[in-house]
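Page 37, top half.
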Amino acid sequence: MEQGDDRRQWIRKRDASRSRASFPELFFDLVFVFGLIQLSHTLAADFTSATIGEAALLVLAVWWLWINTTWVTNLLDTDREPVRFLLFALMLAGILLAIALPEAFGEHALPFAAIYVLIQTGRSAFTAWAFFPQDRQSAETFLRVTAWSAAAGCLWIAGALAQFEWRLVLWGLAIAFEYAAPLLRYPVPGIGSAPKETLSVSGEHMAERCALFVIICLGETILTGGRNAVSHMTADMTFIVFCSAFLSTGCMWWIYFHYGQAEAAEAAEDATEPEAVAHNLFTYGHLPIVAGIIMAAVGEEFALSHAREEASFKYASAILGGPALFLAGNIWVKLAAARHLPLSHVAGLAMLAAIAGLVPFVSNDIVALGATASLLVTAVIEYVALRQRTTVVA
């Protein structure tokens, strides 16, 4: 009974002071800086259709690890030592996973899959055990999550042991299986699906954690740009392209943080169905934002290292595709949070589409400058629209 009483203290209290991100959580996020850098370097080194498909699957896997850990730290108190030990264990496993990422479809397939499955099943099993003395319904939900993670784990391990073609198929099925699970509420034969709104989610905490992850991704684009600028600063146009890349990152920060992040936090905190809203806004809604920033970092690396080369759709797909994904994700989040379609973002996407039509006739630096211009126009239009809306309300 004493052990059960101890575990009751592991659950996060629902008050203002405990809804903020904790230092152990921020420490845990450092692992994903390494993982994101590994992914962007792998893409930049071998940017082919096969590599893009592999990287897309790995981005889905890395995001799923991070967002599911964020759900757990949203519910558990990271100031409690057992929860901190869990985070430290996940950090070690995450570093090993990041090391395996570049060769996840090669010789490190089995270590990658085994570590991934261990993190997913171990974390959810620990959370079920933590909830058991106090909240049986939440504990049963995480038992269902554990069962689904174990079932998906069979596909991950089988894929690691299979030939390359089957590996891509089996891992694609595994990630689709996992992404569908929350929408289906983790049905398990014999006990059914988890009831709706089982978990006591802090929308403010989820919003802050996702915002910090976006900051990490944006920081990775600056690191990538700085590293490549050092190698290519003597080339023509590199300084201008570097300034453009920095401005692009600043525009992405502005587009996400000036308005959207606060709206998402408020919508999640005030929702009558916080669990469903948190899944829509954060579990799924932030994925294209993060993927877009990673792709933008790859595009900036291409623009810096091949500035004056004739543009090709290979390079343009990263230079333009990153901002396009980022804007699409922001449309999703802002539409879900405020029930208002941001026309500024639609205008930005239209500009990117127009620039794509110029690709056969211009060089990479012009494409990069155009991508930055589209983000800048988006930010300015939204800023003016918000100012006008505020003036009318006042």
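Page 37, bottom half:
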Amino acid sequence: MAKRVVLIVIDGFGIGALPDARKYDDPKDVHSHTLDNTLKAALKAGAGVRLPNLTGMGLGNIEGIETVEAVTAPSASYGRMREASIGKDTSVGHWEIAGRITRKPFATFPDVLPPKLLTRLTSCTSRAILGGCVASGTEIIDDLGEEHLRTGSLILYSSADSVLQIAAHEDVVPLEELYKICIKARSLADGYSIARVIARPFIGSVGQFVRTPNRKDFSVPPPPATLLDILKEYEVGVAGVGKIGDIFAHRGIDFELHTDSDSDGIEKTLKAIEYFEGREALVFTNLIEHDMLYCHRNDPVGAGGALERIDKGLIRIIASLGSDDLLVITADHGNDPTTPSTDHSREYVPLLVSSGATRSGLREGLALGTLDTFADLGATLLAYFGIEEQLDGSLFEY
């Protein structure tokens, strides 16, 4: 039977600060732990979070997790991974999962974006700029949205990550125009070593602005020969669900399924699994709501609810897989919604690897301990398909 791997990245699902977190401007005197702090805060607010499927797989057996109970016979192999790349960004996290460690940092801007960049963007788009600073995305839209509606100027901002974000009301700047503006910004951003340009469309009226699912990322290309590139070279199918195509600059992917919610992401993951029935393939899914809608807004109750919905969706994914398939669940970075920061946090990420054998009860999952790099996952998945090409990580037994 042909082997398939379903690799699910729960965006921002960290499980404890890395020893070097302070070097990456994580909040001082605060220990980031996205999972534990989220569940504790949600419980305190009267919204206890239940994760029965992740618990059964062994989430609570992973070192450093206090809020999820350990089980005596986890159905998946379990452990955690530390990030070896320089950064705590979506792009470098996913690239490292795909086997390539980023050793040169992308540019970040602690206070304001480069004035010359803003001037050049104004010139090539014929639209003025509002903002141009480091800000929370929802707050800057609330602060500048009324002026944007009146003037048609673009709202630009950045964060602790290497990003240039361009926000515009869909009635003022149509989506296609906004995307074209972001393509122009992408060409300018290359000269400033900026990892991602992000289109941030929103709708609504003053005081009631809401960002829409029509976000689109324009990433600098990933390092050469990632897991995705190699699989495609060896004619192993690759589907990118969610923003995976954007993160990898649409390289190494047979087809992309964009999503407007995590529930849509689960449905399209199932469609991709069905599409690859009888064929070796990787279905690579990013579930974004936990990070984008809740953690960046310091909303632990919402973040806990997002985790519950993902947990529930796992039932159908597990049921869709055969005995030769793998289900892998991990994350790309942390994003603790209980700290003063609204940015990503540099944390360990969980690793759960469930095979057909573990699901059928033939053996329990193994304790994987702490892997030195996310790239160990990419290298191990490559070997699972019997491919002997080299990635940056090392193999692990699962």
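Margin note: The domain at 4-104+220-384 is CATH 3.40.720.10 (Alkaline Phosphatase, subunit A).
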